[in-house]
Specification:
Pfam families (chain B): BPD_transp_1
Oligomer: heterodimer
CATH superfamily of chain B: MetI-like
Radius of gyration of chain A: 28 Å
Shape of chain B: elongated
InterPro entries (chain B): ABC_transp_perm/SBD, MetI-like, MetI-like_sf
CATH class of chain B: Mainly Alpha
Strand order of the largest sheet of chain A: 6-7-8-3-9-10
CATH architecture of chain B: Orthogonal Bundle
Subcellular location (chain B): Cell membrane; Membrane
Structural class of chain B: mainly alpha
Protein name (chain B): Binding--dependent transport system inner membrane component family protein
Distance between the termini of chain A: 46 Å
Strand content of chain A: 15-25%
CATH architecture of the largest domain in chain A: 3-Layer(aba) Sandwich
Keywords (chain B): Membrane, Transmembrane, Transmembrane helix, Transport
CATH topology of the largest domain in chain A: Rossmann fold
């Protein structure tokens, strides 16, 4: 991935309107092929301005915008736009054209032969799960959600690699919006489209984006992955944009193994005998042991069942332990860990650092504790907040 | 009635035809000039205001005076009459073209442009079809006015049904006045009806149906 060239690049881009208003100040961004970038921020913050510079609907007053390595300023805007998908909030389907003509608008501009266009229209309408005979309908004869679905597939009819979307789902009801989000996620994740979307919906951005760019007053406040933004919001503005609910939720979803693990789990080396191990279990009132080597690296685990199976307590642990057990790294996300623990009915999971040294253990009860904290808050819960709702 | 038709029948047909073609030529010229002008002016809203004011001013010149003014410039006959009527046709068509083009949903134009349509393509394939009903309404209005006003053109020697009416006035023969007026009204109504049908045909599907036409 690192060797790929950016498909869209902003290089010190600025836009100042004649009246002196600075819409965008020194904007730098590299969008890699296959990225899903969300521009989010206050209205008038510069996000739409930035997006519209990519297909030259606006030209910057300073700096360069590059598309596929070429400066867009040197490209014919008409030709450029035909190779970049464009979806806007008000859908923009041409009302006096059938859905087929709408879908095939750009292919027709590119002078595709008729049969190829028709085949493409049929293929695309299938993609959005609408019957083929809808192709002869007019936009006003279908629902708003269906219209926007046509709007989305129209933007990739000529196999555009990059799609620009300006608050595409803002006007839709939540259920329809979610379906369309699934659609664009599919386009990016499965078909490898690069999508740049302007949105004011943080949930949408967090859900879809691989990178979120936060704008305020023409400047980038933060540009990072959703997880990074949730974990380390750049300032109060970002935190406010995310909202307290999501911050709280993020604490759970983005908590790492090290934040909830129990430190100093009971462990033993492989050279002790089963008998000694049994004594250790007994002393600590536990039924299994983590087995480590001299440098405290995880090499196995010993369950009481295994001890009982081999009655001969003189045997060495290292020969009877369960070798190379499942473990997680200390910086793994809880969201992935808990799935494994629950689905595989594990009682616990050793936590290791990147040198495979054991640093802790996560048990089912540590998950339960975390869940309780999330639902009822910590030791001093804000009861008032709950009553208010 | 029958005797009137026997006496003036062929003359009536001829004059009706004159009336019609003077009006229609003036109207066609009006469309040819005002529609493209209105579309172009859509890009220069300030100039558009000025132009609409100018054509409004022309509209306020009394029609008889305008016709009379043509005499020193173009002499008498059909040509000056057509010029005068043409000037009258400009305002409704120009104004409606401007309004129609202005009324096209800007996001529609934005998305068409954003997909890579040229200015011409946006205009011909998107804006114009959407603005057409309003433009057509202007044309219909012009057509009805022109047919009515073409009556006065007889005053400067252009012929038409005005000849009957003025003769009737001069000779005090009410049947001539009525015989000239009724065809004018019928002609205006018929034209309005036919243009109305055409308008409906040209109206984009999304703006069609639901109540009576404009």
């Amino acid at each position: 991935m690192a060797q790929a060239k950016p498909i869209v690049e902003f290089d010190h881009v600025g836009k100042t309107y004649p009246n002196g208003k600075q819409a965008l100040v020194d904007f730098n961004l590299k969008v890699m092929p296959g990225d899903f970038v969300c521009f989010i921020g206050t209205s008038g913050g510069g996000k739409t301005t930035a997006m519209r510079m990519i297909n030259r609907m606006l030209d910057p007053t300073s700096g360069e915008v590059k598309f596929d390595g070429k400066k867009v300023a040197d490209l014919d805007p008409i030709e450029l736009r035909r190779h970049i998908g464009y979806v806007i909030q008000n859908i923009g389907l041409i009302p006096h054209m059938t859905l087929e003509d709408n879908i095939c608008l750009v292919p027709k501009l590119l002078k595709w032969p008729k049969e190829k266009r028709e085949a493409r229209a049929r293929e695309l309408i299938k993609l959005v799960e609408m019957p083929e005979d809808f192709l002869s309908r007019y936009p006003h004869e279908i629902s708003g959600g269906q219209q926007q679905r046509i709007g989305v597939i129209r933007a990739l009819a000529a196999d555009q690699k990059v799609m620009l979307m300006d608050e595409p789902f803002g006007a839709l009801d939540p259920l329809t919006r979610e379906k369309l989000q699934d659609l664009v996620h599919y386009l990016q994740h499965d078909l490898g489209k690069t999508i740049i979307m302007v949105t004011h919906d943080m949930d949408e951005a967090l859900r879809l984006a691989t990178r979120i760019v936060i704008f305020d007053d023409g400047r980038i406040i933060q540009s990072a992955s959703p997880a990074e933004i949730l974990k380390h919001p750049a300032n109060d503005f970002v935190e406010e944009l995310i909202g307290p609910d999501r911050m709280n939720e993020a604490k759970v979803m983005l908590a790492t193994a090290s934040s909830i693990m129990l430190n100093n789990p009971v462990s033993t080396t492989g050279d002790v005998t089963l008998g000694e191990a049994l004594v250790k279990m007994n002393n600590h009132h536990i039924d299994s042991l983590i087995v480590v080597d001299d440098e405290h690296r995880l090499i196995g685990e010993l369950d009481i069942g295994q001890v009982m199976a081999h009655r001969n307590l003189k045997l060495k642990v290292k020969n009877y332990m369960l070798a190379s057990p499942r473990s997680v790294f200390e910086d793994d996300l809880l969201s992935s860990i808990y799935q494994t623990i629950i689905n595989r009915h594990l009682k616990y999971m050793p936590v290791v650092d990147h040198d495979h040294r054991v640093v802790g253990i996560i048990t089912r009860s540590s998950l339960a504790t975390l869940l309780c904290e999330h639902v009822w808050g910590k030791a001093d819960p804000e009861d008032n907040a709950d009553e208010g709702k | 009635m029958m005797s009137f038709l026997n006496e003036y029948g062929s003359d009536l047909l001829l004059k009706t035809w004159e009336q019609l073609y003077i009006s229609l030529i003036a109207l066609s010229l009006g469309i040819i000039v005002a529609v493209p002008l209105g579309i172009t002016l859509n890009r220069f809203p300030r100039t558009a205001k000025v132009m609409i004011s100018i054509s409004s001013m022309l509209q306020t010149v009394p029609s008889l005076a305008l016709l009379a003014l043509m005499i020193p410039i173009f002499g008498i006959g059909k040509f000056p009459a057509i010029v005068a009527l043409f000037i009258y046709s400009l305002l409704p068509i120009l104004r409606n073209t401007c309004i129609g083009m202005e009324g096209v949903d800007p996001s529609l134009i934005d998305s068409a442009k954003g997909m890579g349509m040229t200015r011409w393509q946006v205009m011909l394939q998107v804006s114009l079809p959407q603005a057409l009903p309003v433009i057509m309404a202007g044309i219909r209005l012009s057509a009805v006015y022109l047919i009515a006003w073409a009556t006065l053109a007889s005053y400067i020697g252009a012929g038409g049904l005005g000849d009957f009416i003025f003769n009737g006035l001069n000779l005090y023969q009410p049947e001539l006045i009525i015989g000239g007026t009724i065809p004018v009204s019928l002609l205006a109504l018929l034209t309005d009806f036919l243009l109305g049908r055409l308008e409906q045909k040209l109206t984009p599907v999304n703006l069609r149906d639901g109540g009576e036409d404009e």
